[in-house]
Amino acid sequence: MNVTPASRPRRSPRRSPLRRTWAAVAVVGALALAASACGGSTGEEADGSEDLPLIYGVYATPLEEPWDGAIHAALQSAADDGEIRYKHVDDLSTSDAMERGLRDIASNEEPDAIIGDAFAAEEAVRKVAAEFPDIPFAFGSGEDPVEPNMSVFDNWLQDPAYLAGMLAGGLTESDTIGIVGAMPIPEVNRIVNAFVLGVKETNPQATVKVSFINSFFDPAAAKQAAQAHVSAGADVLFAERDGVIAAAEEADIPVVGMMVDQEEEAPDHVVTSLIWHMRPTVDAVIEQATGEPQAVDLGEFSFMKVGGSELAEINTDIATSTADGVPEDLVTKVEEKQAAIMDGSFTTPVDESAPASSIDVSKK
């Protein structure tokens, strides 16, 4: 990515004010052409004027996967606000399916912009984007933009990750915390490493166990990896991938969610979540849809300082075998650090190196 971080810029009672609710809404409908070509589920555009720009969401995973769910929620929000018409197709799990689906949509639907995730299908997305230079493409990607119409974005969540790590460090009684991530790529590594630094701030004697499932969406594998951390002594988990919250609930320990506010999945166990607000990025794509295609890095729109990410409201009412609520002084420390991030007096370090499987935070 070309973004330089240093240069960029809630549900049950008794909560810290660190949240805005952000929930994904499923869109029901069918688009026969895309469904037959791609094999994914589809969504109809929201009711609205035909004069509104048509934005198409194209996703490699099911929308239950929080990463794509965050994009979908932002697009649905824009549709609900009457700014766009919105259709989507998800679960295009292979590069071939992604390429066919994108080409069919671009040829037959003639959308004003296409947005989605490209990490597992970079070549396919960029190939089709080059074939349709008049349509803006904006995709989650670890690669550079490509002229004239291929923009990229990413989830720069190091700030809320640091804050969540502070909470985890203050809540653990065993001084062992477990993280389950997708795979050791820069987009995941910087979140994990920021979380570990946050743990160090509140608990410098802690150990953080890290495992990767080598998949963006495999809840069963993520749950199994989380259970292994629990067996190794972890009493707080970070659910970078879907499936970990279920393991935390079974083990009756606190857990940090990811991408959207996941408290409702386990109200007694989810202490907070890293929230990715895609709406600023979506608004930038809408500008392209109503103007000229661009090839730009939209990463800056995911930073906390511009409203692109945040820490969900701290669930001070968690009730687990190891934590009966969240100490007030811990909440205060997190709130003070968040204020420092927002006013620029603290910049969360961005470290995209692959983390070790077991980290003594005192040595970070």
From TrEMBL:
Membrane topology: Lipid-anchor
Organism annotation: Nocardioides deserti
Location(s), subcellular: Cell membrane
Segment forming the signal sequence: 1-37
Name of the protein: BMP family protein
Keywords for this protein: Cell membrane, Lipoprotein, Membrane, Signal
Start and end residues of each ABC transporter substrate-binding protein PnrA-like domain: 66-291
Segments passing through the bilayer: none
Keyword Lipoprotein attributed: yes
Entry similarity comment: Belongs to the BMP lipoprotein family.
Coiled-coil segments: none
Start and end residues of each stretch annotated as Disordered: 345-364
Coarse class of the protein's main subcellular location: membrane
Pfam families per record: Bmp (PF02608)
Keyword Lipoprotein appears in the UniProt entry: yes
